[in-house]
Design brief:
There is one protein chain. Helix 3 crosses helix 5. Helices cover 28% and strands 24% of the residues. The protein is an alpha/beta fold. An 8-stranded parallel beta sheet has the order 21-20-19-14-13-10-23-22.
């Protein structure tokens, strides 16, 4: 039932409180509620967090929105990982009610003595509730009591003493609560920081260290030992997660050839996502990559360099996966007796059988849990889940809760490019990160809308990871935008989202599609080994790696870029110049990006200075973290960005002028 002081529309609440809102250790998140009451008496509200230890944290006072009637909000911050709850407490506020009435009646000569008497009684209640250690607050309240009762003073002086800002502040911090109403508790789960802030790099171990015989042309696969040598370069660029596509045996039946053809040669490697063969399934390693001991050594080397290994979890099978023989009920049999292969029209995946979760859900659940725990036991604490939207949401809810119950540090990234409801639903049931529509947001207006959506509307449901490219996605912007396009998208991803990712080859400006209108790479690494000469590219200056390195350095140096919910969109006079900022305490970063890779743009940039913690007339110094230049800025500023030189300003606010 509605409480004595109605508290409604509490947020963040996920699925009517059945799921936990997203939170991260050290990340503030907003709690809002509609709070109102009958009549004209004033009210107050606050948020109370309860931690995983069962201890209630100090209440945080909610402030009334200046524009939206009856909307109250407060920002609260979990300080440890685990399951939290929060509740909204509302109350009748007799002090605020008295302050309002006294400010009207006493100057008008109405009920003067009565108003001072009522004020004195309220101050007595505040004094009685003070902690003995709060000596200064007690002294301030004593001064108010003396003024309220001193009839020898002029009425105006007595009222002025009771309206003194210092006394008002003490009364605000020590409210008298009548008719207290509690709404909640509601759940929130605080993950470790890597769930929010991370920089991902994806490579195929079979390509790293692979060689090609100059005479025969035969390609020899790389392995975990050769791939480990590439980890130093990845770490040097500032990435902290190394993501590996499936490392398991690859099916031989219906194996795909280069560029997704159906006519593989005897030496063609096939797609790593066609999992399973006579050599094993999801708990095995492809023989060409090495042994389990080699994988352990790879994970250990990554850890030495500050990298966490993220492993692909693709719940599907090649036609010759052991499951097809041992558990055929885990797949869908068509009317002609054949097992259905995967399709995403017009794409066909004849080398992959989707798993049917309805015939033996218990058996499948146990097997997947076993597989995940197997790789966890070998040092994997992050899983990038392939196409989770093609599996039941209820299954993911069960699996992720099972893992969180024993290993809350294990993180799951949802690779789901699908309907908004499914993407948000997967986040709601426990996925710590989510791929997004970022790759397809290229116009200024749609980027602005998407940043607002992800930072405010859906932040309690899903955390974004902005991948600039993937083995499946080579956007036309990169195909035809030249090197400036690669800089633009990297700068936008690295600053627009706390987590971002790069697929190997991005730093070499790989941009050729298999055919016009396609987002598939030519000679896609999904179907063949791709040998890259990293050293030659670096020697010839054909690499974006120094720029990626600088972006990651900037990210680490600025706490404002570690957060999701702190985006403010500003404006410019050019439809191709995007402006936004992120602020955390004293750290403020302003990002200005020319989204046109083909031409320089000159425009005026207009800043919302109060959103930056400044007054409208303030001026200040900004430092360009890319070029090192300093400028004096204010509300309105001229910029010129030439993508052939630098397409973006990433500006840190140094100091007022």
């Amino acid at each position: 039932m509605v409480g004595r002081i109605p508290v409604m529309n509490v947020m963040p609440v996920v699925d009517l409180g059945r799921q936990s809102a997203k939170a991260t250790v050290g990340e503030p998140f907003p709690v809002t509620a509609t709070v109102f009451r009958e009549g004209h008496d004033k009210l107050g509200a606050e948020v109370v967090l309860t931690g995983p230890d069962g201890q209630r944290r100090a209440p945080v006072r909610m402030e009334k929105d200046p524009e939206v009637p009856d909307l109250y909000s407060a920002w609260v911050t979990p300080d440890s990982p685990g399951t939290w709850t929060f509740e909204v407490q509302a109350w009748s506020d007799p002090i605020a009610t008295w302050e309002h009435a006294a400010g009207l009646k006493i100057p008008a000569g109405v009920d003067v003595d009565l108003m001072f008497t009522e004020g004195r009684l309220l101050l007595e209640r505040v004094k009685a509730g003070l902690d003995p250690a709060e000596t200064h607050a007690a002294s301030v309240v004593e001064g108010g009591l003396a003024a309220a009762g001193d009839t020898s003073r002029p009425v105006e002086a007595r009222l002025a003493a009771l309206q003194d800002p210092e006394l008002v502040a003490v009364l605000h911090d020590h409210p008298v609560r009548d008719l207290v109403t509690v709404e909640g508790p509601y759940p929130a789960y605080a993950d470790r920081n890597k769930a929010l802030f991370s920089s991902w790099y994806e490579f195929f171990p079979r390509s790293e260290g692979a060689t090609k015989d100059p005479v025969t042309g035969k390609v020899t696969s790389g392995n975990f030992r050769t791939a480990a040598k590439r980890l130093d370069a990845v770490a040097a660029m500032g990435f902290d997660v190394i993501y590996l596509p499936p490392i398991h045996p690859i099916g031989e039946v219906n194996r795909k050839g280069p560029n997704n053809t159906l006519t593989p040669g005897p030496d063609d490697t096939g797609s790593p996502w066609a999992i399973g063969s006579k050599d094993g399934g999801h708990d095995a390693i492809h023989p060409a990559l090495g042994t389990l001991e080699d994988f352990d050594a790879f994970v250990a080397r990554a850890a030495d360099l500050g990298l966490e290994v993220a492993l692909d979890l693709a719940l599907q099978a090649a036609p010759d996966h052991p499951w097809v023989t041992t558990n055929p009920e885990w797949f869908t049999t068509r009317a002609d007796g054949t097992i259905a292969y995967a399709e995403n029209p017009p794409k066909k995946y004849q080398d992959i059988y989707p798993v049917n979760f309805d015939n033996d859900p218990t058996g499948i659940c146990r097997e997947v849990l076993r597989i995940v725990r197997h790789w966890m036991s070998h040092g994997v604490r992050i899983f990038r889940v392939d196409n989770p939207h093609t599996k039941p949401v209820a299954f993911w809810e069960w699996l992720l809760k099972e893992i969180r119950r024993t290993d809350p540090d294990v993180l799951f990234l949802a690779e789901a490019f699908t309907r908004p409801a499914m993407m948000r639903g997967l986040g709601a049931v426990g996925f710590q990160q989510s791929y997004t529509y970022f790759t397809w947001r290229t116009a200024k207006w749609e980027i602005e809308e998407y940043l607002r959506e992800l930072s405010a509307e859906t932040a309690h449901l899903m955390r974004p990871n902005f991948f600039v490219n993937t083995p499946d996605i080579l956007h036309a912007f990169l195909q035809y935008g030249g090197p400036p396009a690669f800089k633009i998208r990297a700068a936008l991803a690295a600053t627009g989202s706390p987590s971002w990712g790069v697929y190997a080859g991005y730093e070499l400006y790989e941009h050729v599609a298999v055919k016009p209108g396609s987002e598939e790479y030519l000679d896609s690494e999904k179907y063949q080994i791709r040998i890259r000469d990293w050293d030659k590219a670096e020697a010839e200056g054909r690499t974006l790696s120094p720029y990626l390195t600088r972006l990651n350095e900037i990210r680490r140096a600025h706490p404002a870029l570690h957060l999701l919910r702190n985006v403010t969109i500003h404006s410019s006079d050019d439809e191709n110049v995007l402006v936004f900022s992120k602020k955390d305490g004293d750290d403020t970063v302003i990002v200005v990006i020319n989204l046109d890779p083909h031409g320089a743009r000159e425009t005026m940039v207009h800043l919302d200075l109060p959103a930056l913690g400044m007054a409208w007339g303030d001026s200040f110094v900004v430092h360009d973290e890319i070029t090192g230049a300093d400028w004096g800025w204010s509300q309105h500023n001229y910029v010129r960005l030439d993508p052939a030189h630098e397409p973006a300003h990433i500006l840190s606010v140094r100091s007022p002028r």
